[in-house]
Each structure stands twice: as C-alpha cells, then as structure tokens.
Amino acid sequence: MTSAITLDELTVVRSGNTVLDHIDAEIPAGEITGLLGPSGCGKTTLMRVIVGAQRITGGTATVLGSPAGSAALRSRVGYVTQSPAVYGDLTVEQNVAYFAALYPDRRATARTDVADAVAAVGLGPFTDRRADALSGGQRSRVSIACALVAHPELLILDEPTVGLDPLLRAELWERFSAMAASGTTLVVSSHVMDEAAHCAQLILLREGRLIEELTPAQLTERTGAPTLDDAFLALVRKQEEAA
Q1: pTM of the model
Q2: Residue range 96-122, pLDDT digits in tens
Q3: Three-state DSSP class for residue 34
Q4: Distance (Å, rounded) from C-alpha 84 to C-alpha 204?
Q5: Nearest of 84, 187, 89 to residue 140 by alpha carbon
Q6: DSSP E strands: which ranges in the chain?
Q7: Cβ pair 80, 157 in contact under 8 A
Q8: pLDDT (0 to 100) of residue 108
Q9: Angle CA(115)–CA(117)–CA(121) in degrees, nearest 5?
Q10: Which residues of 26-40 are buried (b: 16+ CB within 10 A; e: fewer)?
Q11: For 187-224, how does the pLDDT look when each residue is reduced to its tens digit (9 = 90+)?
C-alpha cells in the first residue's frame, strides 16, 4: 500500500459552516505527514474524520484500505488528542497499562511495551506518580505513551509538542522519525511551521481549504522564501492574489 489515507472531495459542514471544503489528498504510508495551518483552519476536524470521530458531509476518507471509522480500524489506528486524555487517579504506568490491556493480542508483551512507551516519552522517573500530580506537559506525554503502547499502524497526533520544552520536542520528533522508519504512518498537526522540517510531506490548510500538498523542500523551492513560515505566507498571498 503506497497510500495510508486517501481523501476524495472530503467535505464537513457543521451548523451551516463549511469546516472542510472538498479536500483531495493522499497521505503516504510509512512516513510522517505534517498537517499545518493556523488555528481554526480545520486540522483537528480532519484528524477526527480520519479516526472516525467526525461525521462526513460529502466525499470519502479511506484509511488503511477501509472507510474511516470502520470497526476493523480500531486496533490499527492510534489517536492522541490535543487535550491530555488520562485518568488522574492512576499512575503513569497504570494509565499506559490500561490502554495496553485494550489490545488482548498484545497482553503477553504488555509489561515490556508499557515500560518502553513510558521511557519513549521521557517519563521513566515518574512511572509511579499519579497523573493528577503531573504538569500539563507531562500529562500530554502520558497521552502519547498510551497511544504508542499498542504499536498502531497509523498514529494521529494533534499538536503533540504544545507546551513541551525544546529538548523534549526534539526527542519526540526523533521517536516519531524512528517509528516512521520502522513502517508506522504518522500524521502530526501543528501551527508551528518550523516543525514542518521534520515531515516527509506537508498538507497545508487555511480556512478549511487545501492550499498545497508537497514536501518541505518543494515548499521553500516553489516560493523562494528563506524560512518555512515565510513560504507558507507566500503561498497564502499568492492564492489571495489569484482569487
């Protein structure tokens, strides 16, 4: 499979407002695709479509060969929301172990998987600490560990590095790159354009519309801009001039 996700004329309308407007895109398998654009551009809605948590108004979204939201995808797709989804009265280890137990075929190795997932997000020293005693950034890392523990084929991460210090952000991106190298497909949203440099492909959104689908190198080459931030602005202004 060359494409993990195919979006065809994907449209989402909520309360009379068009949130996603006829999106056509192909997300390659085994790579990191960055979903970038300003707040409110439709990134989270698109991710919710991919994991089957958002009703589609028109078009289609095909994920790992099946319609988005299919029951067969539940054990194959991991999703990390922007807000930490953890149980405050459980420790870091207990939170991750709970999510590991949701996948019965992995119970034989769950203990090792839990330790690996906790270590991967830099929370080894906090294994026995309750989640409600952690900082906001640490709770976000627990959420990521809960998704990593199942070794999903497709991992969707909504703003995973918000609130994290630069060193941890770099370590997480190294982890994401290693996962992609081993065959996992990752879709990572961000409104910070410098994170686009870590991605193999970019999907740039603005006001629910697809601006471009290209690589970081193609983005800077096409615009001649010195930075990815400047390149994104150049594309937006070019579209506005053409409209």
Answers
A1: 0.89
A2: 999 988 876 655 456 788 998 999 888
A3: strand
A4: 25
A5: 84
A6: 3-14, 17-28, 32-36, 58-63, 66-67, 77-80, 154-158, 185-190, 201-206, 209-214
A7: yes
A8: 46
A9: 115
A10: bbbbbbbbbbbbeee
A11: 999 877 878 889 999 999 999 999 999 999 998 898 88
